[in-house]
Amino acid sequence: MTTTNAPVLHPDLTQAQRDCLDALPLTGNHVVSGPPGSGKSLLAAHRAVHLALTGRPTVLLSRSNLLRQLLRDTLQGLTVPGAPVEASTVHAWVLKHFGYGAPRTQDGWFDWTALTHQAAASLGDDEAATPHLVVDEGQDLSPGFYRLVRLSAASVTVFADECQRLTDTNSTLTEITDALGRATGRAEVSGNHRNTREIASLADHFRTGGSASPMPFRSGVLPVIRHYSGAKDLADDIATTAARHPADRIGVIVNSSRMAADLMRLLERSGLAHEPQLYSSAATAGRYRDLELARPGVVVVHRASVKGLDFDTVVIADAESDSATDPTAATLRMAYYVMITRARQRLVLGWQGNRLPRHLEGLDGWVRTR
């Protein structure tokens, strides 16, 4: 097996991204951190391809199935013949390697301690089949998961940003590093190649913890706070945006399945040039499970599934759903930090009701109001 770096230089990486990738040895465990827009998901795919060249099975993992689809599509343009990389959710990977009887806790998620004991009992049984694992959005997995993969993988590379922890079972960068062992390497990738300066500036207002990243050089229009009289008004505005920007990918982020269903019903009747798409984590297959994320048009997605994605235009559809939440709460601020940083060009924060939600107050200078 190759143990030294054998970088594959790809023209779609910036110099900083190439330097980060080339500095990672092909052995050992590593944690790579970076802000939204720094290219962590793209680097995760490239890292997986590099590791696959060693001849060992390589799996690119994410907690989100929607992110898995995006990573799968990215890998299609990168993989080298004879060195395939599998894109999988953590859920599917555990079931594949530990069986459908894999022990679970009362909340329905896996019992990482019991699985770690199983992995320890079979350690070294089939060393050649032990995979390299690359984890994207690794902050959304618990330390218990990392203690398991420390025993179940030839190497583990984690790409993460602890300012984007949205799940109930998450980890800080320190917790991930500790769980993977003292010898775990740490690296950073900087830069924001996704957002405009105006969008990144608003996102930074909601950031919790960590140090501020340098602002992007690219400028654009100010984000908009817009009041909607109802779902029909919201759907009409989304349809107007889609008509004005026919090549755009428009992400509509919602906080309830009811809002998602209402919007889809209205958008399907609005004569859009491209059929709107809706992602539902409850769907097992079909149009609400497998999306075409690269094509233009409207995608309606719950905020829990938006991590790792990006859109030309983002509409946060129902900010009023957070009106009862303490506007200083870290979980709320983190959620808006993640949602805002999905936008490449344009951002709308929409709300309904009689009073502007408290967490959208005092944003003069960062936004304009309509």
Describe the protein's architecture and organization.
The protein is α/β, with parallel strands linked by helices and 370 residues long. It contains eleven helices and 13 strands. It has helices at 15-22, 40-52, 65-76, 90-98, 112-121, 143-152, 173-180, 197-206, 231-244, 257-268, 330-340, and strands at residues 30-33, 58-62, 86-89, 132-135, 155-160, 185-188, 224-227, 249-254, 277-278, 297-302, 311-316, 343-351, 368-369. A seven-stranded parallel sheet has the order 9-10-8-11-12-7-13, covered by helices on one side. A six-stranded parallel sheet has the order 3-2-4-5-1-6, with helices on both faces. The chain is globular and about 60 Å long. InterPro entries: DNA_helicase_UvrD/REP, P-loop_NTPase. This is AAA family ATPase.
